Amino acid sequence: MRVRDQRNRRRGVLAAGMLAVALALTSACTGGGNGGDNAPGWQGGADQPAAKASVTISEPAADATNVPAATAITFATEQAEETSVELTDSAGKKVKGTLAKDGKSWLPSKALSYGESYTATVTATGDDGLPVTATSAFTVMKQPSKQVRITSFLGDDQTVGVAMPLIVKFGRAIPEQYRPELQRRMTVTSSPAQEGIWHWVSPTEVRYRPKEFWQAGSKVSYRVQAGGLPLGDGWYGRADLTVDIKIGPKLVMTVDNSTKRMVVTRDGETIKTIPVSLGKKSTPSSSGTMVVMEKLRKTVFDTFDELGPEDGYRTKIDYAQRLTWGGEFIHAAPWSEGQQGTTNVSHGCVNVSMANGAWLFNNTRVGDPIVVKGTERKLQLGNGWTDWNVSWEQYVKGSALPYEPADDETADDEAADEETTEDEAADPDVTASATP
């Protein structure tokens, strides 16, 4: 809009009046209606200004077929102030999803239906307020025969300790070149927000830990949107996976070989000191930060296959809590109560009395940390959930994506923006399944 000088205001009004009369006479003579080939530009719309913004969809391409069910809508915009994405199926039903942080793609909230046709519409609006759109119609591939099963160690609504890593396993090795795209679809949100990262411990297992122990009382949700995602050699993810858990109190067990004592703290306060007997010199306990992986009220330790008939033993055990794959436990050992607090006599385990074993068993959770100090052997990386036995700087190197330090934006804000489908069916392949 152009603002006229006030001195010309009266002259302009008169001119406008004369022009209106002239147009009225012309209309009466010609008998034309609104619009038409001879309509003024401002009336017929032919000279409307072009929108500043532009948008193009790169994937899926228009009329594409055999599109993976995990496809994202990828697009490019220029001079866009606002961008929105709409995806509809062949019946016109809208699919919910989330716009990526960089504003260059949009991911459906769940895998698309195999064999279904969809239409993506991306609308971009510039600072002139004029929208432009791009559309792409495509068809999803038929259900593949080669599908990779995805499982979680934890299931919904479990309460775990502050050192619990999130563990996701795949039924087939994931080739290295496919891990970045898979990891982009693995999201973790927590309340309160906490910085963390995924770490590949093997081609079939990836874990997530926060930079520091989880904050006590946190709510944590993690999701793997891998349903229909290409995972190499003609294999595709079988289904999406979503797990919601809770973090319990901050219970930490610290064992010092020099004092032969375990100090137990809850939320920073000492609640119990327990005499212990650690591994003797020939079979020392491991020093390092370990995590309770399994709790067994009663079990049997059988080492004959490992140690042979001369050194092997078979013993009934109460209140056992596994710390390593190699066989180190916290457990009740009534036979060594006379040495607990003074002498190391175990085969590497943390021996406690029957009463203290029961107390620990009733107060700990899977995921609680134990720190052992001052023994003759250091904890071997990979012998258990040793995620906390490496520095944060080392841990981030196991990510398939470059590490980006967290900013002041909270993950909870992002979670609040995420849309979810209203009709997610209870699919047995979507829920988490426990692994032994």
Could you walk me through the main structural features you see in this protein, from its secondary elements to its overall organization?
This protein has 436 residues and is mainly β. The chain contains seven helices and 29 strands. The strands form seven sheets. It has a six-stranded mixed β-sheet, with no helix packed on it. Strands 2-9-8-4-5 form a five-stranded mixed β-sheet, with no helix packed on it. β25 and β26 form a beta hairpin. The protein is elongated, with a radius of gyration of 33 Å. Residues 1-45 and 410-436 have low confidence and may be disordered.
Brief overview:
The chain has about 425 residues and is mainly β.
Question: Could you list some keywords that capture this structure?
Answer:
single chain; 436 residues; mainly beta; six-stranded mixed β-sheet; five-stranded mixed β-sheet; 7 helices; 14% helix; elongated; disordered N terminus; disordered C terminus; cell shape
Q: What coarse outline follows from CA principal-axis ratios?
A: elongated
Question: What distance lies between the first and last C-alpha atoms, to the nearest angstrom?
Answer: 71 Å
Strand content: 35-45%
Count the DSSP helices: 7
Cα-atom radius of gyration: 33 Å
Which class best fits the helix and strand makeup?
A: mainly beta
Average of per-residue pLDDT values: 86
Spans where pLDDT lies below 50 across 5 or more residues: 1-45, 410-436
Order of the strands making up the biggest sheet: 22-21-20-28-23-29
Number of strands: 29
Determine the fraction of residues in helical runs and give it as a percent range: 10-25%
Largest sheet: 6 strands, mixed
